[in-house]
Amino acid sequence: ELSTEDAETAFCTLANREDLNPEEGSIHHCLYQFTRNEKLTETNKLLCDVCTQRHYGPKNNIKSEKKYVYTNAKKQMLISLAPPILTLHLKRFQQAGFNLRKVNRHIKFPEVIDLAPFCTVKCKNVAEGNTKVLYSLYGVVEHSGTMRSGHYTAYAKMRSMNNRLPDLVLRGQSPQALETEPVKGQWFHISDTHVQAVSASKVLSSQAYLLFYERLL
């Protein structure tokens, strides 16, 4: 969504990004890089209708002459609507010449994550004054093997029902109660028909491919 309502708050977030200081190799660092402020210059300049009209006159003459003015700009992708369920998909491959190579590096991820540093200051379903948008981890998908073959397994948390999710999904209502702890429950590792109870530390040490979080606040 392209927002042009208020240039003053266009690059503002719910929480100060500079206070985050994310650790490299963490999901916070991935999100920080994905939502960083980018400068569009040289061949990446933005076509500016206002500048074009100011320079060449009325818009109907511009198209006939095919003359446009491009200007330097800034771009930043931020979250404008905090989802009830947050799914993070990690890119687990990289180009190596003409081949694709799997990335096996461990990416650190927490049981509770705050999306506020990555949300626009006018995030639609966050109550005014809130500076936290918290999510609790409930599922992880892991892939073992190579780009050519391998096996998918999952970690899932058996937990009590989150009574706030229906309000979020059906009515878009923002949760009001402050929760900072992960939802209590037992983690299980699922591999085909084999299911085994595991600790949270085992889950957090996995090489995550997909991460599933549910909103707390």
TrEMBL record:
One of its GO terms (molecular function) is cysteine-type deubiquitinase activity. PROSITE patterns: USP_2, USP_3. One of its GO terms (biological process) is protein deubiquitination. Keywords: Hydrolase. InterPro entries: Papain-like_cys_pep_sf, Peptidase_C19, Peptidase_C19_UCH, USP, USP_CS. Residues 1-216 form the USP domain. GO terms for cellular component: cytosol; nucleus. Pfam families: UCH. This is UBP16 hydrolase. It comes from Oceanodroma tethys (Wedge-rumped storm-petrel). The lineage of its organism: Eukaryota, Metazoa, Chordata, Craniata, Vertebrata. The gene is Usp16_1.
